[in-house]
Specification:
alpha/beta, two-stranded parallel sheet, 9 helices
């Protein structure tokens, strides 16, 4: 079975590629692609691909004819607005069109921030309600809608903050870098999320790609624990034994334009399928036992 992974140099994409390569249960031939200027987290071999270029995407998929496409590529908040739209919206559309052309199984990653943070908890099939002031949210919502409009057989995973206990996620890396420079951190005490560990998320992706192939549409895959951004950050900094030196300040985000506050998600479909959704505290407790 041929599997194409987009964004294979990213935090999730590289972990997913390593997982599939290491487990003999997955008898797959992997092809990883990433943008030309990507900074690789792994030495896994990959090809460059500009997913915002429809012809380039179509040619690559036509040449390799994958059975499964795992679409993890994205531009994160802070990038140029037009660039985010090109990757998160147009790129997603191009991947969906190519997947449909070859009848590939398509599992694509999305985000909880496609919602407004007002009407929580959000169901698996809740329509996206992005805040207009948040270009990232808008681009991800447009990408979701485009994929499912052109290829309804695809499954789109809405997830939350991704972390791991073996390898530090980029968000925590940024916090650590700032603290080591002696800069203060401002963390939101009222922004609620359900962080998901990378191992569980990877298992869910594989289950949806290779086992539960009847599932289509949107599905929430998040951790069981509802945490504020501040509490989550403090837990991770504690796990990595990072001294904060009193440089962490907690504030409320309510009323800030473009920032969804309450992003609690329902996980009815994931539970029905038996997918793993452990909370942060459960994951950390298990991790501590392994260290003993």
């Amino acid at each position: 079975m041929k599997v194409l992974i987009t964004g294979c140099t990213g935090y999730l994409g590289s972990f997913l590629a390593s997982h599939l390569s290491a487990h003999q249960a997955f008898d797959v031939e992997l092809l990883g692609v990433a943008r030309r200027d990507a900074v690789a987290r792994t030495d896994y071999p990959y090809q460059s691909l500009d997913i915002s270029n429809e012809a380039e995407v179509a040619a690559l998929v036509d040449h390799h004819k994958p059975d499964v496409i795992l679409h993890t590529a994205a531009l994160n908040p802070g990038a140029d607005e037009s660039a985010m739209d090109a990757v998160n919206y147009l790129g997603a559309l191009h991947i969906a069109k190519a997947a449909k052309q070859h009848a590939c199984r398509l599992v694509a990653m999305s985000s909880d921030v496609v919602h407004n943070g007002i009407d929580a908890p959000f169901a698996d099939d809740a329509k996206p309600t992005p805040l207009a002031e948040n270009p990232y949210s808008v681009s991800k919502a447009r990408g979701e809608l485009a994929m499912l409009e052109h290829y309804p057989q695809a499954v789109v995973i809405r997830t939350s903050l991704i972390y791991g206990l073996a390898s530090m996620d980029r968000g925590t890396e940024v916090f650590v870098e700032r603290l080591r420079r002696g800069e203060g951190l401002t963390l939101y005490a009222d922004v609620l999320r359900q962080p998901v560990c990378i191992e569980a998320l990877t298992e869910c992706i594989c289950q949806l790609a290779f086992v539960h192939t009847e599932v289509s549409g949107t599905i929430n895959v998040v951790g069981d624990d509802v945490l504020s951004r501040a509490e989550f950050a403090r837990l991770l900094l504690g796990w990595w034994q990072v001294e904060t030196h009193g440089l962490v300040n907690e504030v409320n985000a309510a009323g800030q334009p473009g920032l969804p506050v309450d992003l609690r998600m329902q996980t009815a479909l994931a539970r029905r399928l038996g997918l793993p959704t452990p909370g942060v505290k459960e994951v950390m407790a298990a991790g501590k036992k392994k260290c003993l």
